[in-house]
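Figure caption, in words: inputs first, then the predicted bound structure.
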Amino acid sequence: MTTELDNILASLSDIQREAVLSTEGAALVLAGPGSGKTRVLTARIARILDETRQRKFRILALTFTTKAAMEMRERVDLLVPGLTERTLIGTFHAFCTQLLRQHGSHLEMSPDFAIFDQDADREALLVDALGVAAANGEPVSAEDVRWLKTIDQLKSRLIVPEKAAERFRDAKSGEAAARVYRIYENTLRANNSMDFNGLILGACRLLRDVPGVAERVRQTYPYWLVDEFQDTTPAQYRLIRLAAGDSFRNVFAVADDDQIIYQWAGASYRQIERFRADFQPELMQLVENHRCPPAIVAAANKLVANNTFRTPEKQPIVAAKPDSEDAIAVHVLATDGEEQQWIAESIGSNGRDSWGQTAVLGRTRAILLPIEQALQAKGIKAVVAQRRDRFISPEFNWLQACLDQALRPNDVRVFRLMVDAANRVASDELDAEILAAEADAAGASYFEHWANTATASGNEYLATLGGYGLQLAQSRSQWRSMVRAAIPILVSKAGGDESVISDAADDKAAWDVCLKEIRSEKGSEPELDEVIQGLALRSKEPPHDPEAVTLMTIHASKGLEFDSVYVVGLAESVMPSWQSVKQGDASAEMEEERRNCFVAITRTRERLTLTYASNYRGWSKSPSRFLSEMGLAGG
Ligand code: ATP
Ligand code: MG
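Bound structure (adenosine-5'-triphosphate present):
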């Protein structure tokens, strides 16, 4: 055993250690925030790897975000260096993508399908398709693109287009939604593409309909672990169920039903109930909270006691940390503008907490943006975590498109992306449509034609990029060396210094990871697939700056912790949201809002500051009911 693994085992409480060591059979750790669920899960992976050094099997660990997966992989690598090759630590989507690429041909699915991971792309695709359908006489218009969110919700609940209409109370809306859903699905299929929900559903079909696939999964991965199990959707749970079949039971899930905050996407305590009924897991409880000061633990327990949809057995958390003074402060401001200013001043004048260990959490992104400005006006570095649509740097987009291209050499859409990115890098104009049409007519490959055209017009830089594309298309296995060779050229174009690209483009973190991945000389190369997927997903993760204050929505803060946490906007109709207030105190929406507040305050390691204003955008507001529920009313 390595000393690191030894140390972590020694540092665990008895019950945590038991959860790490009892590696066979189904288990459910049902425990509150900061109780060490993620830490136990990570140690368990390391322990199994360590015990089975001579074996070839891999471990499957499913996390909620790519960022969480990367962190977990790093921690496992610290505990048992060099063994992470024997793991698949990733999101449900990453796992399903791999399954579909490997076995999709059995479903008459081309394994080189594209993944639509950008909402803007999906919307554009649907708008196009609606236009065609309207021209064919269907009663639809471009505005029907608004159904996309509803379609996502139907899909994550495993409802197919044919069954969609009956889910609506209003028959007319039902018909409209079902029609758009059908058009959307047909279009995805015609384009050989998948959206996120489609990946899960496709993998479910594979496991259910193709003999041997589920068995293969169980043989390759005899141990499964699922973090944040409470937020799995019905479709994701079905995937687990299908893959496990009737006898496989080695599933270790950790969950906190009080932290379900993706109810709108289909998450529900019912998945926990189903898991318990189907797998009969050993139930383990961790009650000690190792993250928050006792005052915060007490407030959190009081708050969530107001919810009714809860697992009855779960015990309240008990603080393991010693008492500390001023763990919680409440500040009331007159207006939202003053709230923003006050937070900036408070963070600016706080000598104790580093900016990198400070987070400002809000119910929505909209409430965070003016706070970011107030912080920056005071010279305080601040980053709003957000889903970013694309990398800003064209060089980076070109690189990403290149990798995509290696995977799908004949996909004209990827080709278009590459030409577009190259045009932006070279400030030049190649026309992708014309190039592709000419190449098709001449029976030449896209890149051959690109390279020839650029050479003929004397644009050396574009010719070089085209040449690389050609190499890639011809020899997929050479992608790494090709990209390695392309980087200095991109860099010299950007001004001769690598940092110019990364700093200027604000893509530093992703760029660095990408370079590391591409340059790594590790024995077993990660599949091109995995790298591309990682990049595509990573482009949505916030760049991490260790010296900046983090501003994030509560949804994005899942699983994270900070020394100092500000939770803003604790007013009625802000948090809880206006919609939930309208639904009433006993509504499922209000309970979800309460869980949001619960998740937010329990991110705190040292100090929690709660703020609200009596007036937002000219509307007067009363203090959030959650303040009095936590025993903090008045401030
Ligand atoms: P969440 O529900 O918010 O995801 P969690 O249950 O996953 O929380 P962890 O993130 O694993 O909790 O642990 C919370 C913090 O407590 C971490 O900083 C972790 O290192 C620390 N911790 C966990 N167990 C112990 C322990 N036995 N001794 C000391 N620190 C611990
Ligand atoms: Mg966790």
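Residues 387-392, 499-507 have pLDDT under 50 and may be disordered.
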